[in-house]
């Protein structure tokens, strides 16, 4: 989040990734003397080489290098940079890694080049995969060349952990991080929600990685395990039962009675705080049918959560689920549930007709379509009014679901005029 | 507790209660090196003021009845445009994609197009498919026309010869590196007419309007004016009933198609049109001019009818071309706009205004703010356009203003200028919110893209009535922002 994200591409690729999702941060640049910018650093500005026809014909590495050097001068608060190539710059064969090395040397800040042409994979899932592997490889090299970025022996504690695959959507981190801190852990890193470059270098120094999004980031947890013997634990941090289990699992991994006791205390305290609200919503949502269509892991994270609210999952779809995601989904849903891999609009419409859900958990692009069919929706990629994770986030989640289902508009739309 | 009529459940975590503290990345403000501020002197583009060509072509296609854009490229090229449309219109936007993977990058996108188009025809039975190319397919050098022939042969074999008649195809070449979304719309316009338009010899009864990237509300206002004029008209790329559709009464059948849109037939008959108006010179004039060259349809390229004079100019040209007088009803609406201008002059006169957006919008709005007695200071034209700059210069000369025009600049350059010479109000799109907040100046949203206001897409800014609404928004923004309450009650 304290990096310059420079998209080496024609203008659109950078434009669309600018301020679309709510991955939030707390590091700000100055707008004017005494005034901080209105949005955190990584969303406030969009840096791109905006390749022109000429650049495509003659190659864009020179332009990229110059652009990056300029970006560093214009944004002195940035602690490093990540450059991305896309379809067109990959096709013309621009060597972005070379540029990254040269500029990094020149400005004395880390620059990571991420090869991410759109045609390289089936979906953004391949992009996560590539980022994990490429970033890890680069990380090893950078640590070797700059040993000062590693955590010194005397700074380490036995309770240092990473939270992997947590992207701070609508400030989920504000809920999640304190839960683990109360256990007595020190969070070295969140990969990559509101992450700082200097912390990311210390990923290998943790004792344990706690993996939340298990599609996009298990890769790096696995690499850390292989390379640095940092074991990892998979957790789910949505809903009461799963969040409680996550805390218990982590405490059990450390194996200290004191921590186990603290985990129970936290769980008890949090449940007491949210129970009346959750029960209020549960009473009103019980028996409703819900269809879920999100990235991948959230489908199986949320199947449980919906059950906690008394709702019945009738259809599950993912954009980029892999085999293991589907295995988990199949384990968790009732027999007879419809499961579709990467559905198109037509299939979604068919699903609406056959399953007749009372609620559809989906993203921005599909929500307007199914609303036309009179089905309430909830933006499940970047949330309506998050955070949704953890115990207290669960109340937000339940509230937004209730608001979607209970709005009078759906009844009114069904009545004859 | 008093007045608590019903038990309200415990709120989760409200945004306020998050209490996230902003952390500065540096101890204090460091101004950017002055030599790097102008866009022309930089290789890096910061905060681009335009997006890519395919978006414009997809926008145009979605204004055609039962038409689907088929994007020959990787999935992101479609996904992000759909995001953008959904955010602006709060409506579904069905767009198909060739889903390029590595094999397409190596061997070309033939298979993707042939199979993709076939699937689309079988599943959706569209009346028209617009093949929209992207950076990648253009860099690879896909021969779209030959692919399309192959697809048609395949479909004829499989589905019978009717398929050739049932579905029309238009190919629009839109490599993003060669222009912006405005150019994409312009090209789509030309290609649609080139591919579809015919001249039957019989004189057609319609005049044609090419709106450019106006909102559904704007298009409805255009139709309203044409109706008052008594001119039988057709709007090409009419998104007013495709990207703004009711929830109630929607036929519950699949696949979902919005009920409206320009019928393909209207394009086919375009050669017979009485006259054609391009209401956004940079987004649509290529189509109008092509009709004029090919079929001798008189083409009028006019500035977008925002404000008094621009609307006058448009309506006068319609009156001249069709021989119809301007009716009293429109003169009444014009009078209302003038009345509103008179009533609010103390709020608008001598106010410094900065503008930002697509060339057609900005050029037209500049004249309007001049008419309101405002002083345009910094004008960012998102897509470089000589015509827009000329229009801006001309309007400003008439009213004696000398704004700085950043033609084809990026928002960083414009933002820096604004921070050093703060205007009283900004007219711009949703990407200007941060700047407006940071310099604490009201922002009046208009143009492309506006995605953070509900109902914007339904409120016209064109025509006299739209001008009155636009003026009210500007004045109310100024009132809300800088007038103490006791000075607003008169």
TrEMBL record, chain B:
Family: Belongs to the NifD/NifK/NifE/NifN family.
TM region(s), chain numbering: none
Keywords: Nitrogen fixation
Domain of life: Bacteria
One of the Pfam families matching this protein, by short name: Oxidored_nitro
Gene3D superfamilies in UniProt: Nitrogenase molybdenum iron protein domain, Nitrogenase Molybdenum-iron Protein, subunit B, domain 4
Span of domain Nitrogenase/oxidoreductase component: 52-478
Name of protein: Nitrogenase
Single GO term (MF): nitrogenase activity
């Amino acid at each position: 989040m304290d990096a310059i994200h420079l998209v080496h591409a024609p203008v659109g690729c950078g434009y669309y990734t600018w301020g679309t999702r709510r991955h939030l941060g707390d590091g700000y640049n100055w707008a004017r003397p005494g005034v901080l910018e209105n949005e955190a650093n990584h969303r406030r500005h969009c840096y791109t080489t905006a390749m022109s026809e000429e650049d495509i014909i003659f190659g864009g590495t020179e332009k990229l290098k110059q652009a990056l050097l300029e970006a560093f001068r214009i944004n002195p608060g940035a602690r490093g940079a990540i450059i991305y190539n896309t379809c067109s710059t990959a096709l013309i064969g621009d060597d972005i890694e070379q540029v990254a090395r040269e500029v990094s040397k020149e400005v004395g800040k880390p620059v990571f080049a991420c090869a991410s042409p759109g045609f390289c994979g089936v979906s953004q899932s391949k992009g996560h995969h590539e980022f994990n592997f490429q970033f890890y490889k680069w990380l090893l090299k950078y640590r070797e060349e700059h040993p000062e970025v590693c955590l010194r022996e005397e700074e380490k504690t036995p309770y240092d952990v990473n939270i992997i695959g947590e992207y701070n959507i609508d400030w989920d981190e504000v809920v999640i991080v304190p839960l683990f801190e109360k256990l007595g852990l020190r969070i070295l890193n969140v990969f990559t929600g509101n992450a700082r470059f200097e912390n990311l270098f210390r990923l290998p120094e943790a004792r344990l990685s706690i993996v939340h999004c298990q599609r996009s980031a298990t890769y790096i947890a696995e690499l850390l395990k292989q390379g640095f013997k940092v074991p990892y634990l998979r957790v789910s941090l949505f809903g009461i039962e799963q969040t409680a289990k996550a805390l218990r699992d982590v405490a059990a991994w450390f194996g200290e009675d004191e921590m186990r006791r603290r985990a129970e205390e936290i769980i008890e305290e949090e449940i007491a705080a949210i129970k009346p609200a959750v029960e209020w919503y549960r009473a009103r949502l019980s028996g409703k049918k819900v269809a879920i269509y999100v990235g991948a892991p959230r489908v199986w994270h949320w199947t449980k959560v919906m059950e906690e609210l008394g709702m019945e999952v009738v259809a599950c779809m993912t954009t980029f689920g892999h085999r293991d995601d589907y295995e988990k989904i199949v384990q968790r849903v009732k027999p007879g549930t419809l499961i579709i891999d990467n559905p198109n609009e037509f299939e979604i419409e068919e699903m609406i007709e056959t399953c007749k859900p009372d609620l559809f958990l989906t993203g921005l692009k599909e929500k307007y379509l199914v609303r036309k069919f009179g089905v309430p929706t909830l933006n499940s990629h970047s949330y309506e009014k998050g955070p949704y994770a953890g115990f207290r986030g669960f109340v937000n989640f339940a509230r937004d679901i209730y608001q979607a289902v209970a709005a009078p508009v759906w009844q009114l739309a069904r009545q004859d005029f | 507790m008093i007045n608590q009529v019903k038990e309200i459940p415990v709120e989760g975590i409200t945004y306020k209660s998050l209490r996230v503290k902003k952390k500065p990345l540096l101890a204090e403000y460091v101004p950017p090196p002055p030599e790097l501020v102008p866009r022309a002197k930089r290789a890096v583009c910061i905060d681009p003021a335009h997006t890519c060509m395919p978006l414009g072509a997809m926008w145009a296609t979605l204004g055609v009845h039962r038409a689907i854009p088929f994007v020959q490229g990787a999935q992101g090229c479609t996904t992000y445009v759909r995001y953008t449309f959904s955010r602006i219109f709060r409506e579904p936007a069905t767009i198909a994609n060739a889903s390029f993977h590595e094999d397409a990058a190596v061997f070309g996108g033939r298979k993707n197009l042939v199979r993709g188009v076939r699937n689309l025809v079988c599943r959706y039975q569209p009346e028209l498919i617009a093949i929209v190319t992207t950076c990648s397919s253009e860099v690879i050098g896909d021969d779209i026309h030959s692919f399309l022939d192959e697809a048609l042969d395949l479909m004829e074999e499989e589905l019978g010869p009717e398929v050739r008649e049932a579905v029309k195809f238009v190919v629009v070449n839109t490599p993003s590196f060669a222009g912006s979304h405005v150019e994409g719309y312009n090209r789509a316009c030309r290609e649609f007419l080139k591919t579809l338009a015919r001249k039957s010899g019989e004189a057609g009864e319609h005049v044609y309007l090419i709106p450019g990237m106006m909102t559904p509300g704007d298009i409805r206002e255009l139709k309203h004016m044409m109706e008052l004029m008594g001119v039988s008209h057709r709007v090409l790329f009419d998104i007013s009933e495709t990207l703004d559709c009711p929830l109630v009464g929607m036929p519950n059948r699949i696949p979902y198609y919005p009920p409206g849109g320009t019928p393909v037939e209207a394009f086919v008959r375009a050669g017979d049109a009485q006259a054609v108006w391009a209401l956004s010179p940079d987004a649509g004039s290529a189509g109008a001019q092509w009709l004029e060259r090919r079929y001798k349809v008189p083409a009028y390229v006019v500035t977008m009818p925002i404000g008094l004079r621009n609307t006058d100019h448009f309506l006068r040209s319609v009156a001249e071309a069709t021989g119809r007088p301007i009716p009293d009803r429109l003169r009444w609406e014009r009078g209302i706009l003038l009345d509103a201008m008179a009533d609010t002059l103390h709020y608008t006169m001598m106010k410094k205004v900065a503008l930002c957006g697509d060339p057609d919008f900005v050029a037209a709005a500049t004249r309007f703010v001049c008419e309101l007695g405002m002083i345009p200071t910094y004008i960012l034209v998102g897509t470089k356009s000589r015509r827009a700059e000329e229009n801006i210069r001309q309007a400003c000369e008439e009213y004696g203003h000398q704004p700085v025009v950043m033609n084809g600049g990026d928002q960083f350059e414009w933002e820096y200028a604004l921070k050093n010479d703060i205007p009283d109000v900004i007219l711009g799109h949703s990407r200007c919110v941060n700047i407006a907040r940071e310099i604490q100046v009201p922002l009046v949203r208009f143009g492309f893209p506006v995605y953070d206001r509900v109902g914007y897409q339904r409120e016209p800014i064109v025509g006299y009535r739209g001008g009155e609404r636009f003026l009210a928004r500007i004045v109310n923004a100024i009132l809300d922002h800088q007038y103490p309450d006791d000075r607003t009650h008169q």
